[in-house]
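Key result, reporting period 2: structure in, sequence out.
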C-alpha cells in the first residue's frame, strides 16, 4: 500500500531520504545541490513537505515552498526524489500530483521547479505532466545544463 503523509523537512525520515538524494547528486553531478534551504520554509501554510511510504517504507519525498506571495501566488517544488529501490512504479508522478493538488487547494496559481540534463527521468516526468520551460532563477540560473520549468495551476 502506498500512502503520502506530511512530515517536517527536518524529520528523521525526511533527512534519511534527503541524504540519499544528495548522494545521488554526487553521483550525477559530482556534488550536492547547494540551493539555500531553511527547514521552516516547508512549514504550513507557506510550505509543505511530504513523504511517500510504500508498505511502511519511506521511498518518496517532495515539498513546496512559497516564493511569491500576493494575488498571483507562486511556489517552488524542491527535493523530489524516489529511492532507487522503488523506482519504475509511478510513485514520482503520484507525489507530483499530490504536491500540485495541495498547492491548488491553497490557492497557488503557479509552480516552478528546476532540474538538469543529468536527470532525464525528472525531465520526462515534468514535461509529460504539463510543465513548460520557465525563466531561470536562483543560484543555478547561469548553468548551461540547468532546466527550469513552470506550470499554471487550476485553483482547487
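The corresponding designed sequence is given below.
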Amino acid at each position: 500500500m502506498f500512502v503520502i503523509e506530511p512530515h517536517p523537512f527536518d524529520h528523521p525520515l525526511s533527512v534519511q531520504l534527503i541524504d540519499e538524494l544528495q548522494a545521488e547528486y554526487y553521483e550525477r553531478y559530482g556534488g550536492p545541490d547547494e540551493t539555500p534551504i531553511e527547514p521552516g520554509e516547508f512549514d504550513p501554510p507557506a510550505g509543505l513537505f511530504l513523504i511517500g511510504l510504500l508498505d511502511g517504507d519511506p521511498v518518496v519525498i517532495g515539498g513546496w515552498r512559497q516564493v511569491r506571495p500576493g494575488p498571483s501566488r507562486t511556489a517552488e517544488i524542491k527535493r523530489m526524489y524516489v529511492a532507487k529501490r522503488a523506482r519504475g512504479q509511478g510513485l514520482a508522478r503520484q507525489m507530483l500530483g499530490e504536491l500540485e493538488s495541495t498547492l491548488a487547494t491553497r490557492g497557488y496559481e503557479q509552480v516552478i521547479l528546476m532540474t538538469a540534463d543529468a536527470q532525464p527521468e525528472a525531465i520526462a516526468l515534468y514535461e509529460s505532466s504539463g510543465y513548460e520551460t520557465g525563466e531561470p532563477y536562483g543560484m543555478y540560473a547561469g548553468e548551461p545544463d540547468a532546466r527550469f520549468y513552470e506550470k499554471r495551476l487550476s485553483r482547487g
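The chain has one domain: 2-152. The domain at 2-152 is CATH 3.40.630.30 (Aminopeptidase). This case is discussed further under Risks and Mitigation.
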